[in-house]
Amino acid sequence: MHTWSTDQVDPKDRFDYWREVRAKGLFGVTAELEADRRRDFFGEFSLRKLGDAGLVELRASPYRVERRTGDIADAASDSLCIYQQLGGGGWFGGARLDEFAVRDGMFATSYSDLPYRTVPLHDDGFHLRIIKVPVANIVPPGAELGELVPRPVQDETALRTLLESCFRDLIESSDAIAAAGTAPTVHALAHIALIERGIMRPKSRLAQQALRTAHLSLARRLIRRHLARAALSPTLIAGLLGISVRHLHILFEGTEMSFSETVTALRLEQSRRLLREQPRQTIAEVAFACGFESLATFYRLFNASESMTPGDYRAQTA
């Protein structure tokens, strides 16, 4: 991961450096700010490779951003951009798109090589993440992104939840995984965005593959969310996903573990963490906090996994 901030530049040169080197050179945009506010400017970003895609997290004090025709000619990207607003909010506008605002947590999508303007809505400035996916890797034959102007993802659509889950998987992945194993998730994220924008047919092969990957991602998150419930079942998770129980089991068939094995593995993982980090909790409290239906079941499964009792594990890792 590459990180940089304006703290590395003399205060009087910070905005000029950000504008000429970072804004134009890295992001391919024109940055503007009144001269009397430039000395107080602050900006930082991180850049992480996700295979051929890139993940940028940017935080900066307020300034104006514009992607102009000249910027596009100088720094064409030919990428699908998926944005997540973090904190505050932002305004988007331009000659070819309707004005809109994004608030904290919202997503937006666009094709990189189209003009737009944006400014933060509040004094806390910009804070957002952007995943840029090269078009060559994700656009189905015959599809065009030339009209994919920036537009927010609607909160009420089920696709928004699936998109968010894949996005979070990429954010939370380790550097080793990011370098080697994120391509399926990146492609699923991009294809979910294209389905939401009407570029990809939901029944197409690529779309169905993306939906399976995204549903599996969300299923694992829902399992973690409801792990403490002894009544956690395929019926519960399938209902939350809006799919059949049979479909849920099919999702896990292509993975290393079935649904029930996944639940058990996650419960054991959480129990190990609690045994290490919560010394005041009794073994029984740990077991029931992780959703095991009985203390005997917990001891049996823990012994099978660790070749020792929970008490011995706690003593060994104290």
TrEMBL record:
Residues 217-316 form the HTH araC/xylS-type domain. InterPro entries: AraC_XylS_family_regulators, Homeodomain-like_sf, HTH_AraC, HTH_AraC-typ_CS. The keyword Transcription regulation applies. PROSITE patterns: HTH_ARAC_FAMILY_1, HTH_ARAC_FAMILY_2. The keyword Transcription applies. It comes from the Bacteria. Keywords: DNA-binding, Transcription, Transcription regulation. This is AraC-like DNA-binding protein. It comes from Bradyrhizobium elkanii.
